[in-house]
Amino acid sequence: MALSTDLAPPTLAVHCNQVTLVGRLAADPLERTLPSGDLLVDFRVIVDRPQRRRTGDRSRARIDTLDCVAWTSRLRRQVGAWDAGDVVEVTGSLRRRFWRAASGAAASRYEIEVDQARKVRRVTMAQ
Hints:
Blueprint: E1 19-25, E2 30-33, E3 39-48, E4 63-70, H1 73-80, E5 87-100, E6 106-121
Parallel strand pairs: 4-6
Antiparallel strand pairs: 1-3, 1-5, 2-3, 3-4, 5-6
């Protein structure tokens, strides 16, 4: 028995996993070697959370700190030259990475796997 395609909804949603962040670097990027031998550079980007207008909402700064990872040698070199406080733009995909911890337990984390990156503005040091 063949499956009918007539049951499909009139408009199909297109799947998209693309993230663009513009924010400041929380700390200097860190190059690491995984137990598998793979090299990566990981870093965190701090982004302001959009303001919500609610009655009684306190005017407290709201931010998100998002983990990012660069796998390719080109991106590792590029990101590795950034400094804490630099304003950067990264584009990539949200990924969940799994591994086995030293204790033997399964572990995972969500991170932005970076495809493109650029420094928007270098941090300026006070004289």
